[in-house]
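Minutes, structural biology subgroup

Action item carried over from last meeting: produce the C-alpha cell record for Solute-binding protein family 5 domain-containing protein (Eiseniibacteriota bacterium). EB confirmed the sequence was re-checked against the source entry. Recorded below for completeness.
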Amino acid sequence: MQSRFSNLALRGLVSSFLLSLTLGIYGCSGGGESQGQEASSKADLTELAKVLTREDPHPRPEGARVYEDAKGVYGGRYVSTVRIDPKTWNTIMANEASSTTFTSGILYESLVGFDNYTQERKAVQAERWELSEDGKTWTFYLRKGLRWSDGAPLTADDVIFTSQLVYDEEIHPSVAELAKAGGENYKYNKIDDHTVQISTAEPVANFLNVVGSIYTMPKHILEESFKNGTFSSVYGVDT
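Output recorded by EB:
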C-alpha cells in the first residue's frame, strides 16, 4: 500500500544525501583531477536521484479501502462472533481462541497492554513501571480508583493472588511456562496496596510481553474456590 509518509521520508532522505555529497564535492581542492571527479560524481548523483525518486510501480488502486482511526465511546454494547462456542470465562483456564477472544482484554485486563497503532507497550492496570539497573526487578504502580464489577477495589492483593494461580501445580495454566527466567518462576512481592515488585532470576527481554499475557483475577471472589480446589471449574460459560 502506498504511503504518503514513506514518500515524504524518501524525499527527505534523498535531499539530505544529495546535499551531503554536494558539500563533499565542493569541499575538494582545485585542479583537473578534482574537476573530473566532480563531473563523475554529479553524473552518479543524477542516476541515483532517478532511482530513488521513481514512481511507485505498485500504487494504491483507485477505490481501495482505507481504514481510518476511530475513537471509541464509553459504554454501549460490544458484539463479537466466533465460529466455535467459548469453553470458559475463566481467563487462567482459557486455552483456546474461542475463549481467549473474550477473556483476554475484554472480560479481564493485565498490568500492561500493547498499542497496535504505536507498536509499543502501554500502561493498563499499572499506570507506570520501573526497571532496576540490573534488569531483574520490575516495580509496577497500580492505578488508583480501579474497581471490579461489584465495586470492590482492584489492589496489589489481586495481582499477588493471580500469580499464585499461575504457578499452582494443580491448575498449571499454559502461561506458567512463559513466566519463568533461568528455569525459575517470577517472584511477586507486594510493596503496598498499589505497588507490586516482580523479580526474575535473570533479565528477560520479553518480560512485558509475558506480564501482558497474565490477566488479573479478583481475589475476594475466587480465593475460596482456589483453597477448596474448585477454581478450575469456576466461571464456566453457564455462569
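Discussion: The two ends are 45 Å apart (CA to CA).
Next step: EB to file the record with the rest of the batch.
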